[in-house]
Amino acid sequence: MIDMHIHVVPPNLPGVGSLNPLLEGPAGLLAASLRREMQAAGVTQALAMGGRSDSAEDPLGIQTTLEIARSVPGLAAIGIADPAHTEPEHFRRLDTLLASRPVRALKAYLGYLHYGPDHPGYRPYYELADRHDLPFIFHTGDTYSPRAKVRFAHPLLVDEVAVDHPRVRFVLAHLGNPWLLDAAEVVYKNANVWADLSGLAVGEAASFTAEERQDLLHDVAARVREAYRYAERPDRFLFGSDWPLASLTDYAAFIRSLVPEEDHTKVMEENARRLFRL
User: Fold this and answer.
1) H/E element, 231
2) How many domains does the chain have?
3) Would you say 135 and 105 are in contact if contact means Cβ atoms under 8 Å apart?
4) CATH number at residue 73
5) Residues 6+ apart with CB under 8 A from 73
6) How confident is the model at residue 208 (pLDDT cuts 50, 70, 90)?
7) Terminal Cα distance for the chain, rounded
8) What are the residues whose beta carbons fall under 8 Å from the beta carbon of 187, sequence distance 6 or more?
9) Residue 76: DSSP 8-state
10) What digits encode the pLDDT tens for the residues 60-73?
11) Nearest to residue 30, comparing CAs of 78, 71, 89, 87?
12) Phi and psi (nearest 5°) for 75?
């Protein structure tokens, strides 16, 4: 199984507090916890989001992630695209860095940063993604920040850049939740758009079986199934857990319950292996 959406460092985004104590604690403790959870869940590979960085030495915000990956077999990094950087030297540095393949994808935090996907500041990142054959992930939908502007995170906005950059493979993180059907339409329409199923429910293992949460989980499941059927693209949905915001084992079981059994292998592993060249 491949989990293409986890976190091992704080995202360093405006208005986002502590998401989980593990992300604020010692790297060794986090690595040990991740190894245990991956083994228990049967996850052999995982992709971890970097953190927004203003450091010229770490322009993709992946340095700590790469250090943690040394002690977590199967862990790889995803670099952060920040449209506030417009200086040519920044992109020359990234071009050189990406040639060494330190990341499996790039990611934009739509909504958290007040730029839509069509903002000119993202265009050089799309060009880099094209040149280096890297998927480009968008945060879409709800956020963890009261300072976010969620209109920038609406999945329909990605339709324009998918059309304008047909050689770039785009991913809608969180299936655009709560705009699941809109996200499904973008996946259905555009052959270069995927969606991940991360972050649709969060919490410790017990929260997935707690009686008081069953109505909520049932409602989420019904909406995801509707969007999945609408898209008619089982080869372009991806498993992601948003760990450590959710238990790997329990979230994987939750996603399996939403996806038709005949599509489990595709969604839980094969689609990610093909998309990210794993």
Assistant:
1) helix 214-231
2) 1
3) yes
4) 3.20.20.140
5) 35
6) confident
7) 12
8) 172, 193, 194, 195, 231, 233, 236, 237
9) E
10) 999 999 999 999 99
11) 71
12) -90, 135
Supply the range of the domain harboring residue 79: 2-275
| Alpha carbon distance 103, 47 (integer Å) | 9
The most distant pair of C-alpha atoms in the chain lies apart, rounded to whole Å, by 54
Supply the pLDDT for residue 105.
99
Residues in the chain, how many? 278
- The pLDDT, as a whole number, for residue 79 is 98
CB neighbour list of residue 99: distance below 8 Å, 6 or more residues apart: 132
- The per-residue pLDDT for 99 is 95
- CB 150 within 8 Å of CB 141: yes
> The tokens of 249 are what?
């084992």
Q: Please tell me whether residue 68 adopts helix, strand or coil conformation.
A: helix
Decide the pairing of beta strands 2-7 and 170-173.
Answer: unpaired
Kindly provide the residue ranges of all beta strands, DSSP E only, lying in the chain, ordered along the sequence. Answer: 2-7, 45-49, 75-80, 103-108, 136-139, 170-173, 193-196, 237-238
Based on the number of CB atoms within 10 Å of its own CB, is 178 exposed (0-12), middle (13-18) or buried (19 or more)?
middle
For residue 276, CA distances in Å to 63, 113, 254, 271 come to 20, 25, 23, 9
